[in-house]
Amino acid sequence: MTAVTGDIRVLVVDDHPLLREGIAAVLDQQPDIHLVGEAGDGSEALERFRAERPDVTLMDLQMPEMNGIEAIRAIRAEFPDARIAILTTYRGDVRALHAIKAGAQGYLLKSTLRKELVEAIRALAAGRRHFPAEIAAELAESLGQEALSPRELQVLQRVAQGAANKQIANELGISEDTIKGHLRSIMDKLSANNRTHAVTIGIQRGIIEL
Predict the structure, then answer these.
(1) Dist CA 202 CA 210 (whole Å)
(2) Over the stretch 15-56, which tens digit does the pLDDT of each residue have?
(3) Contact predicate 103/85, CB 8 Å
(4) How many domains is the chain built from?
(5) Whole-prediction pTM
(6) Which residue has the higher pLDDT, 158 or 191?
């Protein structure tokens, strides 16, 4: 991967205009980093990337139409050398793991943007990866955790939607005791204290969606 020489051109992709404005304000203070494009969803991101060919792209994961992971795959399919850092709200987000597998080379928590934004952009532009030490450790831990089975995902999704054990059992054609067993396994795998805690963790990590 060839490092960028000269000014660094950046594309920002996020469906929240205020976040894009905040990033633009930080970059405006850097003489060698220029914001060349913005996008509010994955489809627009692909179009803007084709038009601008930025050196570094900052990509939100949760967006309407085409999400960040799909956008990363689409961009990397056309432009294998694209340098992309993901923007995420939660540590240990399963979506972040998928994004990294899709080709993202950087990870930025939105809460630490002011501190790490410029450093991350310069690292990616230089051909390096940017994963803060504490995040790298959490990602490694998440990768090592046992994944929920398809049935457990079904159960957790229905719990998140407010369904009771009996209702879930009827819908899935299994016994209520089996549902309770699935819930115990889910809580164990997620290190959750109870079903509500399991749902919270599931949503934060991107395992399930409401």
Answers:
(1) 10
(2) 999 999 999 999 999 999 999 999 999 999 999 999 999 999
(3) no
(4) 2
(5) 0.67
(6) 158
